[in-house]
Structures are given as structure tokens and as C-alpha cells.
Amino acid sequence: MSVQTLARIGPTPQADPQVPAVRIDRLTMAFGRFTAVKDLSLQVADGEFLAIVGPTGCGKSTVLNAVAGLLTPAAGAVAIQGRPVRGIDRRIGYLFQQDALMPWKTALENVELGPVLRGDDRAGARARAQEWLAKVGLAGFEQRYPHQLSGGQKKRVQLAQALIYEPEVILMDEPFSALDIHTRHLMQTELLRLWQERRRAVVLITHDLEEAIALGDRVAVLSAGPSSRLVGTFDIPLQRPRNVAEIKLEPRFLDLYRQIWTCLKGEVEKSYAQTR
Amino acid sequence: MPRPADRLIQVAILVVLLGAWETATRTGLLDVFFFPAPSAIGLKIAEWVSDAGFLRHVSITLTETVLGYLIGTGLGIGLGIALGLSPRLATILDPFIKVLNSVPRVVLAPLFVLWFGLGLWSKVALAVTLVFFITFFNAYQGVREVNRAVLNNARILGAGRGQLLRHVYLPTAASWILSSLRTSVGFAVVGAIIGEYLGSSAGLGHLIAQAEGVFDATGVFAGIVVLSVFVLLLDRILDWTEKRLITWRPNQEAEATA
Q1: Cβ under 8 Å to B: A residues 105-144
Q2: Which residue, among A205, A249, A255, has the nearest Cα to A37 in the 3D structure?
Q3: Of A149, A161, A182, B252, which one is least surrounded by beta carbons within 10 A?
Q4: Please, what sign has the CA dihedral across residues B20, B22, B25, B26?
Q5: Which pLDDT score, from 0 to 100, does residue B249 have?
Q6: ipTM for this prediction
Q7: Which among A251, A189, A206, A158 has a CA at the least distance from the CA of A50?
Q8: What pLDDT shows up at residue B250?
Q9: Taking the model in full, what pTM does it have?
């Protein structure tokens, strides 16, 4: 084997296990005088599913937006695969809480938008978008506009839209909170299935502890805002693949829930006392 | 769409109104000097239409309207989008725009006649000032109404500035802009007609002014009818264009399946 071949098959930077997929280092997020998050440090390993929970208004979403590059930190730094995030980062995919599809584009046009904007050729992008729509169970819905789709179907389109260009890190901001409970379970299972096909680093923001435990490899708990900080992280050693609807009945799930809830409960109560 | 029975009722209302009007003029209840009979107005229109010169009047007014409309909406949309995209520029220019918009446009007509003469361009200028602000405010508002989540999503998917304009801002503003394009047609016509009315040698406004000059109420009424038809036709054309441009709106679907 020649030296050149060896160089070609050598490890790529993504594969380096030493470098975390996401590294949040003493991050402070502030808006004017209001400090949402203070001195937050967290790491997400490659292929790890991290769920961040915290009471309402604790600044969870600002952390996610700092990782995405949508917001600039007041202090501290965010790096993806060792490279610092400056401005909107191309290595991420983002699943929004709100309906973020372009209402004037069909499902197919929405899904192919990422590759098209990133300069892929149109025919290839279209073919892949078709594949991805089929992958999320929406074959035959290509020509529908978002207003012709149900809430769950719109989320599926958004999932395909965010995953089609194979981002290194997937960020999710309470992606399923607007769905009814059954659709939510279906979507969570769907998400895990897609993620298992090609495991990448995921940061999921949620206020739903059940969701965090059912989906995550690790759960991080943030304190009540303002100046929210990390209270603790918990490993979730539940077996994969998981069935989201059924895993909640397992005794180990309940144990973990009880354990993390004792930690989260105090923060939720503090947050509630502030807003009352 | 109205049902056939409703259509019949509409026609009946028209017949009764015109019939009553006609009868009132014939029995002397209405003075034909002020309220000429519908039949007389119809005859007058027929007389105009059969005259070769009439087409020239119409084409001149049409040219003024179309030019004023295109220039006014073009400037309005362009500047509206530019200011919508740049909040700083919008803040700086805000007082100037407010003052300019508060000037009653009709009083500008004499100025335009001085600047551009009695010909075509003084009317175009008046139409532009009327049309500009309508499309401007709509385009501006349309761009500012953009959904933050959709905007951020497009940015993360990889859109640069120009692509954001094309894939997010313009489609968002499109329904606002299109509705203002509809309203603007009427105003473009008003600008052209007032311009003609105040000083010109041709055009539909000129016809009305001439009729008024000789106390010919029939001529004035005939002019009004011709103008209404003129505006209705332009509106139809825009309606048709709009239906083809915006295909994604929810109400469109309801209409298609109904």
C-alpha cells in the first residue's frame, strides 16, 4: 500500500474522538443588562445525543442559538469540531419549535432548499429531496404546500429539510412541543430511527423531562434564569433502539426520572415563584 | 361566484334603477340639464366610440396611466424593500417620507405643469406621486412582516443576502405588494385624469373638462361611465395576473376545490 493511499484513508478531523463535536466554553449570553445564561460549559461528543432541560425562561434557546451562530455570546466561546463558531455555522442543522417552512414552497421545494442554497446541482438536490421525503414517510406529498399538511407532516418535512445536507451537528429547539401527544411520540420515534441510521451529535432543548430522558444519551439540567447555569448532567444508560412510548413504563426510566426531577424541581419552583 | 339567480337579481336592480331614472327625466321629475337621461348618455358614448378621435383620447390616458403606474410602483417597491431591509435607513428617512406623504397631491399638479409642460409627463408625474406611496408603504410593511423563524431557517440552510431576498423577503412581501398593486391602478387613473382635467389637449380627462366647459352634463356622465369601464378592465387584468403569481395561498386552494 502506497503512502498516498494511507493518507487518503487516514482519519478525518470529524472522526477524531479527542475533539468534541460541540464544545461550549464558559458561555455567557446577555441582552443589554439582562444576563440569560452565565458561565455555561458543556461538551457533546461525536454521535452523542444531549438533551438540555430547564425551567421556562432559563435561556436554553439562547445557548442553542449561540451554537448555531444566530446569536453572538457576550463572553465565552462555542466550537464545533474544534473550530470556533463565527456567524451562522454551515455544519449544523436546526429543527425549529415554530413552523419554519417557507409557506410559498411545496414540501419538495422546501426539502431541496438547503442543498440548492449550498450550491448543489438542481437535479441531484431534487432527487435527494424526493428520497428524504420518502424517508420521513411523505412520499406522494411532494407537491403539497405547508398549509395543506398536518402539524406532524410539517414537522416531518422540517426534519427532512434539516437533515438532507447531512449536518455534523443537529440542534433542536423544543421541536415537538406544539404537537399532540400521539404525534409527538411518533415523531420522537421517527427522529431516533433517522438518527440511528447515521449517528451525529444532537443538542435537544426541551422543557419536557420525559422527552429528554427518552431521547437523550445524557441530560443536562439548567437552573432557573436569569444568569442561568448548569446544575448537573445525568447519563441515561437506557438501551437503544428505544421505543419512546413504551420506554416510559420501564422501572429504570422511572428511576432516572425521579433522580433528575429532584434536581430540576427546585429550579422549576424558583422560576415559577419569579413569574407569579 | 354569484349564483345564476343572484345574477338575475343584479340585472333586475340595474334595470329598475336605470328605468326609474329614465322615466323621471321623461316625465320632467329630473331636470335633464343636471341629470341627463341614461339613453342620452348611452347615445353620447356611442357617438364618442364611433368617432376615430376617441381612440386617441383613450390611448393617451392609458399611456399616462400605465407609465405613471409602472414608474410609481417600481420606485415604491424598490424603495420599500430597501428601507424594509435596512431599519437604520428607514429611521433616518422616516420624517421626510411622512412630510412628503402629507402633501395633498392635487396641489402638485400646477407645479408639474410648470416643470413638465402640458403634455404627457406632467400627468405621469402626478400619477407617480399618487401610486408611489401606496406601494412603498406596502412593500416596506411586507418586508418587515417576515417570519423570524422562516428567516433564520433559510439562513441556516445556507442562504446569503441575495438568496434571502429571493427565497424569503420577496415571497413574504408579495401578497402585500400585489394588494397594493390592485389599489394603485385606481390611483394611477385618478392622477392621469386630474392632470388632464387641470390642463391638457387630449385624454379622457380632457373630454370631461371640455363637456363641463359647455355645461354638457351628458358629456360629463358619459366620461364617468367610460372611465369606470376603463378602470374595471385594468383591474380585471391585474386580477388575472395575481391569480397566476400567487399559487400557494390557502384561500386559493379553497376556491379551486369549491
Answers
A1: 105, 113-114, 117-118
A2: A205
A3: A182
A4: negative
A5: 67
A6: 0.86
A7: A206
A8: 61
A9: 0.78
Residue with cell 391569480: B243
d(CA A179, CA B160): 31
Subunit contact A96:B152, Cβ cutoff 8 A: yes
Average pLDDT, stretch B128-143?
93
Domains in chain A: ranges and CATH:
19-91+218-269 (3.40.50)
Residue of chain A whose alpha carbon sits nearest to that of B161: A117
Of B138, B136, B112, nearest to B126 by C-alpha is B112
Question: Domains of chain B, with CATH numbers?
Answer: 42-247 (1.10.3720.10)
Distance CA A198, CA A214 (A): 19
Rounded to a whole number of angstroms, the distance from the CA of A260 to the nearest CA of chain B is 31
| pLDDT tens-digit readout, A53-76 | 988 877 888 999 999 999 999 999
The cell for A139 is 412520499
Distance of CA A47 to the CA centre of its chain: 12
* B153-172 residues touching A, CB cutoff 8 A: 153-160, 163, 167-168, 171
The CA distance from A257 to A241, in Å, is 19
Amino acid at B217: A
CA distance A6 to chain B (A): 34
Chosen from B151, B155, B156 to mutate, greatest number of chain A CBs within 10 A:
B156
A104 touching B (Cβ < 8 Å): yes
pLDDT tens, residue by residue, A195-249: 998 899 999 999 899 999 999 999 999 988 788 889 899 999 998 888 888 888 9
The answer, for A70 touching chain B at a CB cutoff of 8 Å, is: yes
Residue A38 — φ and ψ, nearest 5°? -130, 130
All 3 cell numbers of residue B142?
A: 411586507
Nearest CA in chain A to B171: A104
SS3 assignment, position A204: strand
Residue with cell 422546501: A110
Backbone region of residue A220 per phi and psi (left: phi > 0; alpha: psi in -120 to 50; beta: other values) = beta
CB distance B250 to B175 below 8 Å: no
